[in-house]
Amino acid sequence: MLRELDIRNFAIIDALTVSFSEGLTVLTGETGAGKSIIIDAVHLLAGGRGSQEFIRHGAKKAEIEGLFSLEDEQHPVFRRLEEFGISWSDGDILLRRELNDKGKNVCRINGKLVTISILREVGASLIDIHGQHETQELMDEKQHLHLLDQFAGKSLTKSKESYTHTFDKYTKLKREFSSYTENEQQIAQRIDLLTFQLQEIEAAELVLGEEEELVQERKKLQNFNKIYESISAAHEAIQGESKGLDWIGSAMSELEHAASVDETFTGSSETLSSAFYLIQDTGTEIKRILDDMEFDPARLNDIEQRLAVIQSLKRKYGASVEDILLYHEKQTDELDKLVNRDQRYQLDQEKLKELTEDLRVEAEELTILRRKAAKSLGKAIMEQLQELHMAKASFEVNFSVLPNSRFDRNGHDAISFYISTNLGEPLKPLTKVASGGELSRMMLALKTIFSKHQGITSIIFDEVDTGVSGRVAQAIAEKIAAISVHSQVLCISHLPQVAAMADQHLFIEKKVDKQRTTTAVTELDGRERTEEMSRMLSGAEITDLTLQHAEELLSLAADRKLLMK
Question: Which residues form the RecF/RecN/SMC N-terminal domain (predicted)?
Fold first, then answer.
């Protein structure tokens, strides 16, 4: 649920912090008071399109922050956060968006900077906004299949995963088939190029680790004189006449004499004796190295040429010898496919036939499962529509096959919702026959069904009840309240029937402070709520009769809500 919303310098809002409760929160107030501005702020927070016009006049930037709390640790949004490397704790998710006067957006999730697309993806898992003229899923037939699959739930999941796996293999093989239909001249040119590249790499006879060894050997040869001079000087210092080893030998003899007289010096004598023989052996080893050292300019030249060859290949085929060898392996496979394309074509054609048949069988299984789910969905929607006083309406899910008998990631079904709103009228596409009020009721019927399965944290209705009254208004109020049993619902409404069902009632009003207009929010309870309900019922003047009517409406709503829980 959306626990708290903080808005700064947004439209006519100077600074506003609103806390929300579980269940149904209704926002009421005069037209133009700023109710929809709050919903616009939530829409931006969920990744909606921003504009500099949203920034309050005189401010540099608008800031919106929303804190969401989720109890379900398996909620899909947490998987998305993991994918984006965003941490969380205790089920809290903090969304933040800043819009500055230069048109730049700064988006954060739990303090981490993210792109607007990531904010939008995470926001879509948390917030579902429906405006008075927004019934996007219903008006977009492409979404009808998604809605049906969502309703089918686990009964379809395993089969759909199997189909998707087969479809991925099918599309991959189809892409490979495109290479078989290329121009013969292009194929011949490609074969020549690959042959040349592979021969060039093979001629070099590359060995892993070779380049590093050559670089080290080159370094030694380039510094041969310095190394030779240093080693010679070291040998002279150790074993030259009257040099280090002679002096250490003299010291060793003296200490041995002292130790023979006084055992105190025995340890020092033995240590120096060990050092003498160790240095003597080192001097002998250095002499051997000096005798073997020989500068070979031809070898240095060979190394330079070999490194030049490797460097040339790296510029063409990869950043390292390993990359070049991997490139060689990949291009060898491509050349083999091109040279033996006729044989491979036959083999792949057989594979494609098998995959196509597998895909057809699995797609048919999806269709069977969907038809079964469609009957249940149709029955459930009809029950909801009857409760919304559309008893004469008829609804069904229309099935057809994708054009040219093709497949896509969802199978080969083309799904669309058909409805007839009047008795005796034929069923027609929902997108073409439903009026605004009917679409609102259809949307509420679907939301009542899907709110149990969607996992959306907060559903927002922005005046979806406009233009209805009487029994329909009461039915819509009860449907919105029913949805709030499974998801938090925020609803802007002018209907007292809807407001009466609220678990939290927020009153939105304009105030003028220091010659500036701003929006304020007050949570109503007790007498204040009754008076607001009375105003909604009467339109203006509050009387004892309208107050009595408001109290009765609130009492009846409380009874209905108890039956829902």
Answer: 1-511
